From TrEMBL:
Gene Ontology MF annotations: acyltransferase activity, transferring groups other than amino-acyl groups
Pfam assignment, any one: Transferase
Coiled-coil intervals, chain numbering: none
UniProt-listed PANTHER family: PTHR31625
Keywords, alphabetical: Acyltransferase, Transferase
Name of the protein this chain belongs to: Malonyl-coenzyme A:anthocyanin 3-O-glucoside-6''-O-malonyltransferase-like protein
InterPro entries: CAT-like_dom_sf, Plant_metabolite_acyltrans
Organism: Carex littledalei
């Protein structure tokens, strides 16, 4: 029997409590405007839910909506809109006025088996769980956040989010999700302590950069907010892989042993060994890349700690820049590919720590120069506590970043099972998935022989 098409149960707008937030304009910094025309970040939080639709709508939905309203009081920019600031030609801001809101949609579906789990899942199916973030055609404002809850009666539910990257980075958004979930648990009368008031810092004057860097970052940007909402390819999949703490320690041991043999110093962090191991497999799976070419890896570097004084963790906005790594394909696919990748990635981290944002004026040009070469990228972080987002149904069974379909990036998240592990999501064809899976399993076995 063919699955039934998804059915919309409710669609509404959720605002912070009336009168709780004054009209506010928050200027975008150069860290923010870099993302103006990028696709939204799309996350899916999967949960087990063993009750009926009627139970959900009567017992769970009211708490979800009321707690979202209260969470938006602290994170009100998510209910606002991005716009060109009045009487300016190139200054953008997030503008919030009372009654601004977030689109909140509830959908019922019966396609549970195809979507839940770690097996490769068709991207077009996953995209049905993601809300569309569309601009206001009447006044050219760009909403910041949309949310969709998809219910699979007696099986599970998924909370899908689309957030505009110019409003915040992943750290701030996951903090919002944890806040919403905690308030929801409390309003459901669960035996959980009342939520501690969230301190969120919106002051953009913390980010001290020359105006010229802002202008450079904005160069070529328009008010069209040309977000990429293209239709996904039915032949593409998101596949998940896990590096537990033991496997990461194994990779670190192999790296340190090779560095000792070569008498060189290396950065041996979880990020370095994870990105390096996956990057090598990615290059091998993408058989269209010639060994005579350069391979490129782009990942986010958090600059909060390198400002003086450091930007507080409570800052809600963007403070990340690109780290661009280059390496010869022939070196990455060779016998010492993992070490070569680790060295290349570690050097970029070390350079970023040394120079901070001194080269920020060149970031846009550097990214554009390699964009056509489809670099290996990353989205998310193993430091984001995505599996702490518990609305009262238990922690998520799975968290995906499906917007990696726009760029082909690697999705990174904390491990659900243990502290110190990492989950990886990759956007591949079936053939590439098979090739990477083989590399992943064989590569770890080979690493085990090197560490003995």
């Amino acid at each position: 029997m063919a699955p039934s098409p998804p059915k919309i149960i409710e669609s509404c707008q959720i605002s912070p409590p009336t009168g709780s937030v004054p009209e506010t304009s928050i200027p975008l910094t150069f860290f923010d405007v870099r993302w103006l025309n990028f696709a939204p970040v799309e996350r899916l939080f999967f949960y087990s839910f063993q009750d009926s639709t009627s139970h959900f709508t009567s017992s769970c939905l009211p708490a979800l909506k009321s707690s979202l309203s209260l969470a938006l009081q602290s994170f009100f920019p998510l209910a606002g809109n991005i716009r060109l600031a009045p009487e300016t030609t190139n200054k953008y801001e997030i503008h919030y006025v009372d009654s601004d809101s977030v689109l909140f949609t509830v959908v019922e579906s019966d396609q549970y088996d195809e979507l839940f789990g770690d097996h490769p899942r068709e991207i077009s199916k996953l995209k049905e769980l993601v809300p569309r973030l569309s601009k206001n055609e009447s006044d050219e404002r760009q909403p910041v956040l949309a949310i969709q809850v998809t219910l699979f009666p007696y099986h599970g539910l998924v909370i899908g989010t689309s957030v505009h990257h110019s409003a915040c980075d992943g750290s701030g958004f996951v903090t919002f999700m944890c806040t919403w979930a905690t308030i929801c648990c409390t309003s459901n009368s669960k035996v959980i302590p009342a939520p501690t008031p969230v301190r969120v810092e919106f002051d953009r004057s913390i980010i001290h950069v020359p105006d010229s860097i802002y202008t450079t970052a904005l160069n070529g940007t328009s008010t069209n907010f040309n977000l990429n909402n293209s239709q996904p390819d039915h032949q593409m999949f998101i596949a998940s892989y896990k590096l537990n703490r033991e496997r990461i320690q194994l990779l670190q041991q192999v790296l340190l042993r090779e560095a000792e043999k070569r008498n060189v110093t290396v950065r041996c962090s979880t990020v370095v060994v994870t990105y390096a191991f996956v990057w090598v497999g990615y290059v091998k799976a993408k058989s269209t890349i010639s060994e005579n070419e350069d391979a490129h890896c782009v990942f986010a570097i958090d600059h909060r700690q390198w400002f003086q004084p450091p930007v507080p963790e409570s800052y809600f906005g963007n403070c990340i820049g690109p780290g661009i790594v280059r390496a010869k394909v022939k070196d990455l696919v060779g016998p010492n590919g993992f070490f070569e990748a680790c060295q290349a990635i570690g050097k970029v981290f070390d350079e970023a720590k040394r120079v901070g944002i001194q080269n920020a004026k060149d970031w846009r040009k550097a990214v554009l120069e390699i964009a056509s070469k489809k670099p290996f990228g990353s989205s998310g972080s193993h430091r984001f506590k995505v599996y702490d987002v518990d609305f009262g149904w238990g922690k998520p069974s799975k968290v995906d970043i499906v917007s990696i379909s726009y760029s082909g990036a690697m999705a990174v998240a904390q491990s659900r099972e243990e502290e110190g592990g990492v989950e990886i999501g990759l956007y591949f064809t079936q053939r590439e998935t098979d090739m990477f899976t083989n590399y992943f399993e064989e590569g770890l076995r080979y690493m085990s022989t090197l560490s003995n």
